[in-house]
Design brief:
The protein has about 325 residues and is α/β, with parallel strands linked by helices. Among the domains are: about 1-85, Arc Repressor Mutant, subunit A; about 170-255 and about 295-315, D-Maltodextrin-Binding Protein, domain 2. The chain has helices at about 5-20, 20-30, 30-45, 60-85, 90, 105-120, 175-185, 205, 220-225, 235-240, 275-280, 285, 305-315; strands at about 50-55, 55-60, 95-100, 125-130, 145-150, 160-175, 190, 210-215, 230-235, 245-250, 255-265. The strands form three sheets. Strands 3, 4, 5, 6, 9, 10 and 11 form a seven-stranded mixed β-sheet that branches. The protein has a two-stranded antiparallel ribbon with strand order 1-2. Helix 1 crosses helix 3. The radius of gyration is 23 Å and the shape is globular.
Length: about 325
């Protein structure tokens, strides 16, 4: 097997982070054919497949997962060395504009990370703007943007983007309302919204219950469910963040993928030491993304058997 070079590892990291040779090429500032050719050469050199080519993009193989930690360690070492060689103190000063969405659960996680960055780099000023409006990175309206994009959506080709984590949605109900409905004391109804629910999430018709209320904003819809007004589609991260007692996922339903949260910046800023420093810092969110936001270990997915057991005790 041939020895691996840093150029080989850069291709591996870019393809892993961006999910396709095209977006990896854009991030690296080379052509799609160049990345595809380098990837094929790398796989031939190590005599193994690094990515499965699927309609949804590149899917890392077990061999790739083994190599990624090594590649990231090399990247960190080289990055740290470059910062020292270019004069870290002189470059890591000034202002960085960061645009974030107006979404409390994700912002709490972001500000914890930004606070750590601020302590590590006391000469950098952070100008953070919170808005759900689109931000034009090409016009330098912000240096960074953190936004939730639809599952199939990708950043423009002149924007460097990395997925930080997945957000899922599920159907939630208050446990007391669920028990009362099983006892025939109250009717279980659906709380509708004008917002489009993700594909795969059961509708009121699928559940065989009627729509009674309509509540548009996510925060208000969470409050409605917490106050036993019905079943509603909620972001799993919002439920986890709210910590509402006795809020459970509707029996026999699962959470479904809704959006990916992306870290975005314009490719022309790649040579900025400040940009690289914050990008590297925020990238750690990818490894620390809360499992419950992805629908894992969220407020209990209470089973029909457990509900029936509770009813039996009340009867």
């Amino acid at each position: 097997m041939q020895e691996l070079s840093w150029d080989d590892l850069k291709v591996l990291l870019a393809c892993s982070r961006h999910g396709s040779t095209r977006t990896a090429a854009s991030a690296m500032g080379v052509s799609n054919s160049t990345v595809a050719r380098r990837l094929e050469t790398l796989e031939a050199a190590i005599e193994g497949r690094l990515f499965d080519r699927t309609p949804d993009g590149l899917l890392a193989t077990a061999l790739c997962e083994e190599l990624l930690p090594i590649a990231k360690t090399v990247e960190d070492t080289i990055s740290d060395g470059q910062l020292r060689l270019t004069g870290r103190d002189a470059l890591l000063a000034g202002k960085l504009k960061v645009s974030i969405a107006d979404f409390k659960p994700v912002n709490q996680l972001l500000f914890r990370s930004l606070s750590e960055f601020s302590k590590a780099y006391p000469r950098i000023q952070l100008d953070v703007r919170s808005s759900n409006d689109k931000v034009d990175l090409s016009r330098r309206e912000a240096d960074f943007a953190i936004r939730g994009l639809k599952l199939e959506e990708r950043p423009p080709k002149d924007i460097v983007g990395v997925k930080l984590g997945l957000l899922t949605m599920g159907l939630y109900v208050h446990k007391t309302l669920l028990v009362d409905a099983r006892l025939g004391k109250r009717e279980l109804s659906f709380i509708d919204s004008s917002q489009t629910a993700p594909a795969g999430l059961p509708t009121a018709a699928d559940l065989g219950i009627k729509v009674r209320h309509s509540v548009d904003t996510p925060i208000a819809r969470l409050d409605a469910v917490a106050n036993q007004m019905g079943v509603a589609a909620l972001a799993c991260c919002s439920v986890a963040d709210a910590g509402v007692k006795d809020l459970v996922r509707l029996p026999n339903t699962e959470s479904v993928p809704h959006r990916y949260v992306w870290l975005l910046y314009h490719k022309d800023l790649r040579q900025s030491a400040r940009i690289r420093a914050l990008f590297k810092h925020l990238l750690t969110l990818e490894q620390n993304w809360p499992a419950e936001w992805m629908g894992q270990a969220i407020a209990p997915n209470i089973s029909s058997e457990l509900i029936n057991a509770k009813i039996s005790k009340l009867a």
